[in-house]
Amino acid sequence: MSVLPRHVPSSSDLPEVRWLRSSYSTGANNCVETARLGAGRWAGLLAVRDSKAPSGPALLFSPESWAGFTARFQP
């Protein structure tokens, strides 16, 4: 069993994904965007990228890891 990478060097390596921004985003491109990866090597993972660098790297998380991370910051 091979270990999947925790990032991709370029978000362009994730074709045909739909990137979403938080509803709290101001439109100043100072937030992160997320995408659920539904096909290919990274199917089932969540990608996170910087909205200021849309073709830059993306971090990859399991849905459980991302849910745990975001739950820690809920008011």
What's the gist of this structure?
This protein is 12% helix and 24% strand.
Please explain how this structure is put together.
The protein has 75 residues and is an alpha+beta fold. Helix content is 12%, strand content 24%. The chain has a 5-stranded antiparallel beta sheet. A hairpin with a 7-residue loop joins strand 4 and strand 5 (58-61). The longest helix is centred in the C-terminal third of the chain and has 9 residues, at 63-71. It is globular and about 35 Å long. The chain starts with 6 loop residues before the first strand and ends with a helix. The mean pLDDT is 85.
The first-to-last residue Cα distance is 39 Å
**Backbone CA Rg:** 13 Å
Helix- and strand-based class? alpha+beta
Sequence stretches where pLDDT stays below 50 over 5 or more residues: none
pLDDT averaged over residues: 85
How many distinct helices?
A: 1
Question: Helix proportion of residues, in percent?
Answer: 10-25%
Strand content: 15-25%
What is the number of beta strands? 5
Topology at a glance:
Blueprint: E1 7-8, E2 20-21, E3 32-36, E4 46-50, E5 58-61, H1 63-71
Antiparallel strand pairs: 1-5, 2-3, 3-4, 4-5
Characteristics:
globular, 75 residues, alpha+beta, 5-stranded antiparallel beta sheet
